[in-house]
């Protein structure tokens, strides 16, 4: 009964499947509904109002508890609305390959959006529909190659190079540790590093890890180029389900450079010092350099992780003491030849 003395509530109203919104004010749900139907030229009978955010129907009891400037959708008989996710579902179902008009519409939605969760969903949608994942060459997707040297003519070629560069940097770290090894052991340490280098050259520095064209088992992504975060070093998987496709667009390519190949058993704190110690204290034993190679340069000890999953704390893991040296080969005794009777 006191509604007539209250200040009218204001809303932003739009029709279903329309991005155009207009302001409307009223002291009751019915008043707002009538004004909205008049503006949109829709029949009042069978029409109703619901919240854009979650699809909750606006009733008389709920009317005054809704914040001012809330966004409403006006529905006619037979129409439904499940909330703002309906916008995104509409985008994805209406277009197999998004047009420039769709992308512009998504950008307009985002620029007018203030709710953080909706901003995130719309930004993710815009990022996804702007991708050109199937394209592979510079000619097919020139924007992807912006800022890269002209020698890179394919996406797979560049990402393979990117992975090789990371592995090469690990090799340089191993090599730079040589001066800390005692003089008597430096020759053997250098020999082992050379053997690792030769093996890396043979497999092209494991650049296949980032190459979607590589064989399954040699790459860390799907044939389409999707990478999934493997989670921090101390868990089996990524709880946040981080994923990325650096083949999609330039922004994804740049963002992918922040993902890490994280050593489960730490390279600098553990593996390299353990290798140096093994060489120094070998005492006639043969260092199992291929074990150290696997820890330093292969997915046996490397996890691809999103920057948020890259824990920079001490891992407190050590090398397997039973694999540091090669097992001595047992010489087989020759049995004496049996004399013919």
TrEMBL record:
<dbReference type="InterPro" id="IPR044925">
    <property type="entry name" value="His-Me_finger_sf"/>
</dbReference>
<dbReference type="Pfam" id="PF02017">
    <property type="entry name" value="CIDE-N"/>
</dbReference>
<dbReference type="InterPro" id="IPR015311">
    <property type="entry name" value="DFF40_C"/>
</dbReference>
<keyword id="KW-0963">Cytoplasm</keyword>
<keyword id="KW-0539">Nucleus</keyword>
<dbReference type="GO" id="GO:0016787">
    <property type="term" value="F:hydrolase activity"/>
</dbReference>
<comment type="function">
    <text>Nuclease that induces DNA fragmentation and chromatin condensation during apoptosis. Degrades naked DNA and induces apoptotic morphology.</text>
</comment>
<comment type="subunit">
    <text>Heterodimer of DFFA and DFFB. Interacts with H1-1.</text>
</comment>
<keyword id="KW-0540">Nuclease</keyword>
<dbReference type="GO" id="GO:0006309">
    <property type="term" value="P:apoptotic DNA fragmentation"/>
</dbReference>
<dbReference type="GO" id="GO:0004520">
    <property type="term" value="F:DNA endonuclease activity"/>
</dbReference>
<dbReference type="GO" id="GO:0005634">
    <property type="term" value="C:nucleus"/>
</dbReference>
<dbReference type="InterPro" id="IPR039729">
    <property type="entry name" value="DFF40"/>
</dbReference>
<protein>
    <recommendedName>
        <fullName>DNA fragmentation factor subunit beta</fullName>
    </recommendedName>
</protein>
<dbReference type="Pfam" id="PF09230">
    <property type="entry name" value="DFF40"/>
</dbReference>
<feature type="domain" description="CIDE-N">
    <location>
        <begin position="7"/>
        <end position="83"/>
    </location>
</feature>
<keyword id="KW-0053">Apoptosis</keyword>
<dbReference type="InterPro" id="IPR003508">
    <property type="entry name" value="CIDE-N_dom"/>
</dbReference>
<keyword id="KW-0378">Hydrolase</keyword>
<dbReference type="GO" id="GO:0005737">
    <property type="term" value="C:cytoplasm"/>
</dbReference>
């Amino acid at each position: 009964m006191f509604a007539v003395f209250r200040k009218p509530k204001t809303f932003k109203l739009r029709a279903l499947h329309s991005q155009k919104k207009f302001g409307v004010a009223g002291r009751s749900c019915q008043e707002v509904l009538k004004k909205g139907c008049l503006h949109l030229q829709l029949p009042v009978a069978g029409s109703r109002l619901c919240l854009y955010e979650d699809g909750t129907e606006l009733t008389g009891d709920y009317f005054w508890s809704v914040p001012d400037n809330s966004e409403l959708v006006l529905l006619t008989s037979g129409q439904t609305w499940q909330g703002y996710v309906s916008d995104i579902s509409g985008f994805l179902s209406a277009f197999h390959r998004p047009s420039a008009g769709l992308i512009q519409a998504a950008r307009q939605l985002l620029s007018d959006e203030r709710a953080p969760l909706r901003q995130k969903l719309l930004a993710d949608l815009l990022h996804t529909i702007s991708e050109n994942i199937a394209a592979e060459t510079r000619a097919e997707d020139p924007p992807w190659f912006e800022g890269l040297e002209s020698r890179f003519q394919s996406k797979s070629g560049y990402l393979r190079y990117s992975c090789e560069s990371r592995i090469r940097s690990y090799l340089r770290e191993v090599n730079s540790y040589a001066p800390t090894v005692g003089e008597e052991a430096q020759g053997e340490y250098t020999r082992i590093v050379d053997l690792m280098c030769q093996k890396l050259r043979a497999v092209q520095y494991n650049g296949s890890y980032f190459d979607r064209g590589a064989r399954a088992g040699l790459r860390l992504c799907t044939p389409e180029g999707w990478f999934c975060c493997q989670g921090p070093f101390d868990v089996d998987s990524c709880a946040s389900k981080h994923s990325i496709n650096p083949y999609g667009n330039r922004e994804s390519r740049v963002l992918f450079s922040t993902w890490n190949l994280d050593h489960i058993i730490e390279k600098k704190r553990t593996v390299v010092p353990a290798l140096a110690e093994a060489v120094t204290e070998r005492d006639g034993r043969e260092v199992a350099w291929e074990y150290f190679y696997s820890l330093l340069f292969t997915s046996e000890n490397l996890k691809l992780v999103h920057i948020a999953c890259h824990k920079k704390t001490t891992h407190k893991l050590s090398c397997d003491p039973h694999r540091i040296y090669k097992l001595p080969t047992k010489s087989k005794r020759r049995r004496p030849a049996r004399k013919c009777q």
